[in-house]
Specification:
The protein is an alpha+beta fold. The protein has 10 helices and 17 strands. Helix 1 runs antiparallel to helix 10. Belongs to the CD36 family.
């Protein structure tokens, strides 16, 4: 039995109305459902397998690449000539990070200590840890600057001590020893008779404090109760602020711990975080949208004002005493040693700094700092944090080891910590927080489009029937098979039965 077009039109009209209704409901309800799922998944909660695992054990590839500035003319520097440097590296270390001593509190915060270990990756490096490089001797040149205002007799005694232990202005040692520590009779002497003067009680190395260590006790908000606070630092080592700097604003501990941020970010959002290694809070700013491994992200970079001096950027006056813009004086949190942090190769720094040494060539691709973050969740997809360690060195009267060194902020090493979400974690992340919300968004448009198409088809069928009915306005007759005649209503004429 055939179905009339009128019946088909009615069915299509009902289906179309339902489709439009369902799609319209999704337009308003869909974002709410998606946002609720995001809020549920980004909270720090052991019941959330995806986000909690990423937060606790960071199961993604993470590497530290170290570059040394090998000194080519140490003898000439002692005579007053400009340093000539040659970049050596990278020496790449796989980094393992995990959180321990995790304690949840009643005020929707959680405390933890994050530990880190480094493992040398020779196949990703240009050489191995036995490579020999020459860098300034921080024990000699750093101590000389620290003691330059001491009585002249004390400086003479310090110089005699250096000679006794055969310590010169420059060190030539294997990369591994410079990184993780080397034996030094001077270090042993200082630790015995002047305990606490050096940052380490064991071997002296540039990263000896980092390996198998933690970054202090962080207490951060879990996001329960207010997702806008998730990952934000409540305290560090029990402190709401530090006392390294000259102003209250500069001492504040702001933002997150630097691994995740609150969700629902916009181009107006910034990425504030507290860095124990830099002893201060920092803030990255939005640069541009990108797509990282199939996931839309926002790229955030360090603003030029990050390490600007107080003259160029007054809010940074609290980080002074300052030198040229592009240098952060961290002596106040590094045992008063004359140490400065900058971007690699003095990128984004005062151009005059490039004229103080030979061998630097800054550019954004190699030396810029950035974080690519998924704005809806606040989860970083690609990270590259690059910083340079510099030391102020100069000739100090009474300390012959400093010779005639011209005053200069000397680059020693720079390192980049990089990581990106990949493998099963990326698949799960993309499925749960990107693909499914996208499918739901497409469903609403498809449902509305199909609904409108059904309604349009029903309307066409109805109009077609109306046109056909107008073709017969008088009573019409049909001849039956037996030859008899019967009358039809005009409204049924030319219709199919």
């Amino acid at each position: 039995m055939s179905v009339s077009k009128a019946t088909v039109a009615v069915v299509l009209l009902v289906l179309g109305a339902l489709g439009v209704l369902f799609g319209t409901v999704l337009v308003f309800v869909g974002p709410i459902i998606i946002d609720e799922q995001i809020v549920k998944n980004v909270q720090i909660n052991p019941k959330n397998d995806l986000s909690y695992t990423m937060w606790k054990d960071i199961p993604v590839p993470f590497f530290m690449s170290v570059y040394f500035f090998h000194v080519l003319n140490p003898v000439e520097i002692l005579k007053g000539e400009k340093p000539m440097l040659q970049q050596r590296g990278p020496y790449v270390y796989r980094e393992r990070r995990w959180k321990d001593n995790i304690t949840f509190h009643d005020n929707n915060t959680v405390s933890y200590r994050e530990y880190r270990q480094y493992f040398f990756e020779e196949n990703m490096s240009v050489g191995n840890e036995s490579d020999v490089v020459t860098i300034p001797n921080m024990l000699v040149l750093g101590a000389s600057v620290m003691m330059e205002n001491m009585p002249y007799a004390f400086r003479l005694l310090l110089s005699t001590t250096f000679k006794t232990f055969n310590e010169g202005a420059f060190l030539t040692k294997p990369v591994g020893e410079l990184m993780w520590g080397y034996d030094s009779k001077l270090v042993d002497f200082l630790n015995k008779y002047l305990p606490g003067m050096l940052p380490s009680s064991g071997k002296f190395g540039l990263f000896s404090e980092f390996n198998n260590s933690n970054t202090g006790e962080f207490t951060v908000f879990t996001g329960q109760g207010d997702i806008r606070n998730v990952h934000k630092v409540d305290s560090w080592n029990g402190l709401k602020s530090v006392n390294y700097w000259r102003t209250e604003q500069c001492n504040l501990i702001n933002g997150t711990a630097g691994q995740m941020w609150p969700p629902f970010m916009t181009t107006e959002s910034t990425l504030p975080f507290y860095s124990p290694d830099a002893c201060r809070s920092m803030e990255l700013v939005y640069q541009r949208p990108l797509v990282s491994r199939g996931i839309p992200v926002f790229r955030y970079v360090a603003p030029k004002t990050l390490f600007a001096n107080g003259s160029d950027y007054p809010p940074n006056e609290g980080f002074c005493p300052c030198r040229q813009s592009g240098l952060l004086n961290v002596s106040s949190c590094r045992h008063n040693s004359p140490v400065f942090i900058s971007h690699p190769h003095f990128y984004n720094a005062d151009p005059d700094l490039l004229n103080t040494v030979y061998g630097l060539s800054p550019n954004e691709d190699d030396h810029g700092l950035f974080i690519d973050i998924h704005p809806e969740t606040g989860v970083p997809m690609n990270v590259s944090i690059r910083l340079q360690l510099n030391m102020l060195m100069k000739s100090v009267s009474g300390i012959s080891e400093t010779g005639k060194i011209q005053e200069v902020v000397m680059p020693m090493i720079w390192f980049g910590e990089s990581g990106y979400i990949d493998g099963p974690v990326l698949t799960t992340f993309r499925t749960n927080l990107v693909v499914l919300p996208m499918v739901m968004e497409y469903m609403q448009y498809i449902s509305i489009s199909l609904g409108l198409a059904f309604i349009l088809t029903a309307a066409i069928l109805y109009l077609n029937e109306k046109v056909k009915s107008k073709m017969c306005v008088q009573p019409c007759t049909d001849v039956n098979p037996d030859g008899s005649v019967h009358e039809k209503s005009p409204l049924l004429h030319n219709t199919e039965t």
